[in-house]
């Protein structure tokens, strides 16, 4: 039987432990107000060491302060991304703890902070991807998704990042999640043209766009529905399976996806691409004909078929599809661009032949003939490229191609005018 002194000692130790947690939490609060990096780090470490024995209420407060401390320190360190991930976990711990004990003392602020962390994680992931640090970017994007699983677009970007980093197992895992969610990625993008610059800007919501239009700074409001990403998701999923030697499983996945989403033509395109990659042109053509029978005047479908036909080295068919797209939608930028690229492909063979010619009279004559053919080709392609720039003044790649044509054809004035827009 324990003596009353032992019991009293135990009670005393518990009380002292409780005081220790409270003292360290207060010290952390004080450190946060000081904005002293080292003081924040030391106080955070001290509080972390004693919080395990704290009450749930004390833990909720600690994790809230820890999240704030990590957000503060993330702005002062090179490994900002890692700290943001840990900050997100701390704020989520606050929500879980207070949900368990039925209190909401810090939850509201934690949710607001999580939204800030999510935005910062996405910004850091963009920097990673631009620097080709795809693995690091993927981790941050997936953490951004975990903060709010309604934002499935971050899971989609994380899956693509995993592909870019060649982490195919992770990519398959994320694509599997997207498939189960039946994620399509379809959204409405709102546009309006800025009067001062004449450039079109995009807006996240209709209300935001309409606000600028009402203010008089923008006009020509329009909206555009983005294409489904299901086809891309299933295609990437299937290609990874093919790479892993599971071609049959890949075909089954696409076939099942088409049954579940019979109106999603992007899935049919993905399946046709799979057969095309295998050189199975019979199966490829069969699927294409099925899709066209349902949607003979769908510009997006026709455009995709043009791309696929071009990959299959069927240039005549690809050109037919691109021209059909333009006939249906005269502002379909990529149809003009791809048609121009398709036609300019002939220039490669011309240049190769010119380079092989000698200096005989016969060769010189042939050289002049090819030169005239090239000029006719460039003159025929120029309107297509000019239309692309008209539709998208920021397309630098197309501008450079067109400048090359102007230079070859000695169109100095047009060359200078276009070059001026590059600045």
- Measured distance between first and last alpha carbons: 89 Å
Spatial ordering of strands, largest sheet: 2-1-3
Structural class: mainly alpha
Number of helices: 19
Radius of gyration: 30 Å
Indicate the proportion of strand residues. Answer: under 5%
Give the topology.
Layout: H1 4-34, H2 37-50, H3 56-74, H4 80-101, H5 107-130, H6 134-147, H7 152-164, H8 168-180, E1 188-194, E2 200-203, H9 206-215, E3 218-225, H10 230-243, H11 247-260, H12 265-277, H13 281-294, H14 299-311, H15 315-328, H16 333-356, H17 361-391, H18 396-408, H19 412-422
Antiparallel strand pairs: 1-2, 1-3
Overview of the molecule:
This protein is mainly α and 423 residues long. It has helices at 4-34, 37-50, 56-74, 80-101, 107-130, 134-147, 152-164, 168-180, 206-215, 230-243, 247-260, 265-277, 281-294, 299-311, 315-328, 333-356, 361-391, 396-408, 412-422; strands at 188-194, 200-203, 218-225. A hairpin with a 5-residue loop joins β1 (188-194) and β2. The protein is elongated and about 95 Å long.
Descriptive tags:
76% helix; 423 residues; mainly alpha
Short structural description:
With 423 residues, the chain is mainly alpha-helical. It has helices spanning 4-34, 37-50, 56-74, 80-101, 107-130, 134-147, 152-164, 168-180, 206-215, 230-243, 247-260, 265-277, 281-294, 299-311, 315-328, 333-356, 361-391, 396-408, 412-422, and strands spanning 188-194, 200-203, 218-225.
């Amino acid at each position: 039987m324990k003596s009353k002194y032992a019991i009293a000692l135990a009670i005393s130790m518990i009380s002292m432990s409780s005081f220790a947690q409270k003292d360290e939490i207060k010290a952390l609060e004080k450190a946060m107000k000081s904005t002293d990096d080292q003081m924040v780090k030391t106080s955070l470490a001290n509080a972390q060491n004693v919080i395990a024995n704290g009450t749930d209420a004390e833990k909720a407060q600690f994790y809230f302060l820890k999240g704030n401390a990590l957000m503060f320190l993330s702005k002062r360190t090179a490994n900002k991304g890692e700290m943001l991930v840990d900050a997100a976990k701390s704020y989520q711990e606050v929500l879980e703890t207070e949900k368990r004990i039925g209190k909401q003392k810090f939850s509201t602020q934690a949710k607001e902070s999580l939204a800030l962390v999510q935005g910062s994680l996405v910004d850091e992931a963009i920097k990673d991807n631009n620097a080709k640090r795809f693995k690091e970017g993927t981790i941050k994007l997936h953490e951004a998704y975990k903060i709010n699983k309604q934002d499935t677009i971050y899971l989609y970007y994380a899956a693509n990042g995993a592909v870019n980093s060649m982490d195919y197992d992770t990519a398959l895992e994320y694509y599997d999640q997207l498939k189960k969610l039946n994620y399509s990625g379809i959204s409405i993008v709102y546009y309006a043209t800025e009067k001062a610059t004449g450039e079109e800007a995009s807006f996240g919501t209709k209300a935001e766009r309409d606000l600028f239009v009402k203010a008089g700074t923008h006009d020509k409001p329009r909206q555009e529905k983005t294409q489904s990403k299901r086809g891309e998701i299933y295609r990437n999923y299937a290609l990874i399976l093919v790479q892993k030697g599971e071609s049959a499983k890949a075909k089954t996945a696409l076939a099942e996806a088409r049954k579940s989403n019979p109106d999603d033509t992007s899935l049919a395109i993905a399946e046709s691409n799979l057969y095309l990659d295998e050189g199975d042109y019979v199966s490829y053509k069969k699927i294409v004909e099925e899709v066209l029978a349902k949607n003979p005047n769908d510009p997006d479908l026709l455009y995709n078929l043009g791309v696929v036909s071009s990959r299959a080295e069927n240039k005549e068919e690809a050109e037919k599809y691109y021209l059909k797209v333009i006939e249906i939608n005269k502002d379909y930028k990529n149809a003009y661009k791809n048609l121009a690229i398709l036609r300019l492909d002939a220039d490669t063979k011309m240049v190769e032949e010119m380079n092989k010619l000698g200096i005989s009279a016969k060769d010189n004559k042939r050289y002049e003939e090819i030169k005239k053919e090239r000029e006719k080709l460039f003159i025929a392609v120029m309107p297509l490229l000019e239309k692309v720039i008209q539709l998208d003044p920021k397309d630098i790649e197309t501008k450079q191609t067109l400048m090359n044509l102007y230079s070859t054809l000695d169109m100095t004035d047009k060359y200078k005018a276009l070059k001026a827009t590059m600045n």
